[in-house]
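Okay, is this right?
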Amino acid sequence: MAFSAKVESSPFAGINVTPLVDVLLVLLIIFMISAPVIAHKNRIDLPSPSASEARRPDPLRITVDPGGMVFLNGTLVSDATLATQLDVASARGRDDATRIPHVELHARDEASYEDVARVLALARAHGVTGVDFASD
């Protein structure tokens, strides 16, 4: 019994499509999973502005300079004067909820951390809870 082994010397000219189909199926699965996530929208009910928020008073602008000098609305003040002004603003906020004090703190470039921390501690000790840090 003789078996003949047929050997072809010409190259096979077909394309192997199995890896291509595998990649396409993986992409199809990824898109099927991510499409509902992208199309999903959450409804958020935001509060509408009330008249009391529209009448919010101007913030107390406190500026701390590099030398440790403190300015309240552009006027140089001492710590005692600043404490008195913060007490007055806090008292107004206790009497009328629309006048709760709010501080806008400007710290100049060379101002030391200790001076800024001292002003923040003073504001907190005198009933101010809202502080915005502003830059020039």
Remarks:
- The first helix runs from residue 18 to 39.
- Residues 14 and 112 are 76 Å apart (CA to CA).
